[in-house]
Specification:
Elements (H helix, E strand, L loop, with lengths): L10 H12 L6 E5 L6 H13 L14 H7 L6 E4 L10 H11 L9 E5 L7 H12 L5 E7 L7 H4 L3 E4 L5 H10 L6 H7 L4 H9 L2 H16 L5 H8 L4 H19 L13 H7 L5 H18 L5 H21 L3
Parallel strand pairs: 1-4, 1-5, 2-3, 3-4
Helix pairs in contact: 4-5, 7-9, 8-9, 11-15, 12-13, 12-14, 14-15
The structure holds zinc ion.
Length: about 325
């Protein structure tokens, strides 16, 4: 199922895409980048569907009604090809690119554009990226490649330089909150939006997955560690079952907020304003220098997390350090 509904914060980007379309300057390769949850895919789909619809509306949108729009929405349009990791988080291998090249060697089924959607383009492995580069180098008739990525820096410069780039940024808070309200996200939408770094679709997903409950549990574990009330190894056992990238992000944002509180930064600049009273209690017990060091350490572990197999050990080490950091100050009675 392809979602191509418009999102209110895509207004300017859509104008640009629409102009390409109206002026018949459709880029050979378009890269839509930005953090998770801004609707990169939806924008790509909206543009792709407009390119593939023979009865496009005057405002540049697809008609949503014709047979080809229906094929597109069902993800069965023969001239809409997809390149993506087989599983989330996995790499895109050379075989997938070879299959794509084979399909591209055939003529489009219909007499219009052909679109290739590349999801998580940064997941192309080296060999796949090289093979894919050839697709971009050799002009493909009536074909538009749309690359979607959260991490364009991981793509080779040779691919980047061949793409027209479009960067999605987080919408104004007010607009995002209004949209969330319309999506029936009626509780704690401000906290959710903060957690999602301002990305509305991610905030909505967090709401649907009850993420705030998990966050509360994790936060209480973390506080208990600082008060030597829980065992780091047991907590690590609990946390390792959770989405690790998410919980590590939380942890980093808590420590960042602690540092901000130590410098008496106003609450509106905190990522977790709802936890400010707890941060304030912790601050007098911590040394700024040690806290900074711990923050750097966490950022390093966040990178390791992608490659390290034993997450349990990673978490244990981290929690032991955190509990030491806070216990010293308990003993010295700071
Ligand atoms: Zn249509």
């Amino acid at each position: 199922m392809m979602h191509s509904e418009s999102l209110p914060w895509h207004h300017n980007e859509w104008q640009i895409l629409n102009q390409y379309f109206q002026q018949n300057r459709i880029p050979q390769a378009l890269m839509i980048k930005g953090i998770k949850g801004l609707g990169k895919q939806r924008l790509a789909h909206r543009f792709a569907q407009a390119l593939l619809c023979p009865q496009g509306l005057e405002n540049g949108e697809s008609c949503q009604e014709c047979k080809r729009c229906k094929l597109f929405k069902a993800a069965t349009h023969p001239d809409c090809l997809v390149l993506a990791p087989e599983e989330t988080g996995k790499k895109i291998g050379i075989d997938a690119v070879r299959t794509l090249i084979e399909k591209l060697s055939l003529k489009p089924q219909f007499d219009m554009m052909r679109v290739v959607l590349i999801y998580s383009a940064d997941k192309l492995n080296n060999a796949a990226a090289n093979a894919f580069l050839k697709c971009l180098e050799e002009p493909n008739e009536r074909t538009c490649f749309i690359l979607i990525t959260e991490n364009s820096a991981k793509l080779p410069a040779t691919i980047l330089s061949r793409c027209q780039k479009m960067m999605l940024t987080k919408p104004e808070t007010e607009l995002a909150l209004r949209w969330l309200y319309q999506q029936q996200v009626t509780e704690k939408s401000d906290v959710l939006l903060n957690l999602a770094q301002g990305a509305p679709l991610l905030a909505k997903a967090y709401f649907e997955e009850d993420v705030l409950v998990l966050r509360e549990t994790c936060f209480n574990d973390w506080l208990a560690l600082s008060n030597q009330q829980k065992n780091p190894i047991e907590i690590a056992e609990q946390w390792v079952k959770q989405p690790i990238a998410t919980v590590l992000n939380w942890l980093i944002s808590w420590v960042a907020d602690l540092i901000k509180c130590a410098y008496q930064v106003p609450i509106i600049y905190l990522s977790n304003p709802d936890y400010q009273p707890d941060f304030q209690k912790l601050v007098p017990r911590l040394e700024c220098k040690a806290l900074h060091k711990f923050y750097q350490y966490l950022l390093q572990r966040q990178q390791d997390q992608e490659t390290q197999v034993n997450l349990q050990i990673l978490l244990e080490a981290l929690f032991v350090l955190w509990s030491q950091l806070t216990s010293k100050d308990l003993i010295h009675g700071r």
